[in-house]
What we know:
Strand 1 and strand 2 (about 20-25) form a beta hairpin. By secondary structure, the chain is an alpha/beta fold. The protein contains 7 helices and 14 strands.
Amino acid sequence: MEETSALYLKQMELGPMENFVYLVGSRSTREVFVVDPAWQVDTVLRVAKEEDLKIKGALISHYHFDHTNGLEELLEHVSCPVYVNKQDAPYLEFSSDHIKHVQSGDKVKLGDIEIECVHTPGHTPGSQCFHVRGHLISGDTLFIGACGRCDLPGGDATQMYYSLTQKLAKFDDSTILCPGHNYADKATTTMAEEKKTNPYLLCDSLQNFLRFRTGVSEYR
């Protein structure tokens, strides 16, 4: 993934579930956050060392094991804050004084880079995306051509509909979408493309979304 202006952003596919783990931060200070540390933390640490990056924290899109199973190992090597939406924090299988609760609209900074936390419940109660310099790191809320499951514990299809249509669909068309898994034939896309082709963003009503996502037409 290319670095744009002051932003450093690297996408890495790691683990057996095609997870995308990201390093995001400042090109000038070489300070970065790890987004969703999981599976191969040794690879993340190696890349950071090779590229002269200083890991200053972790950003968690949601609590699921495949996005957080590397937290403990990361903190064994780097003492840093871990930012989790407060609604997902109770579900984490890992407890530490490093855990910091955030909510929608909160911002974290590294050098000249500011990252906004966008609460997008639906996949989990505290799912969140990270908006930074024209990029949206979307975890398991929005995929290329799809959206996250709503049938797992804590999932809610109604909340997912509003997260997609009232929050993410309002991002500028030029915004680059960086999903949490490599589930498509390309690694990134734009919100313009998703608004044109993603069937979940094209649903024109909650009832149609529920029918499409869950197979039922009732509000719930």
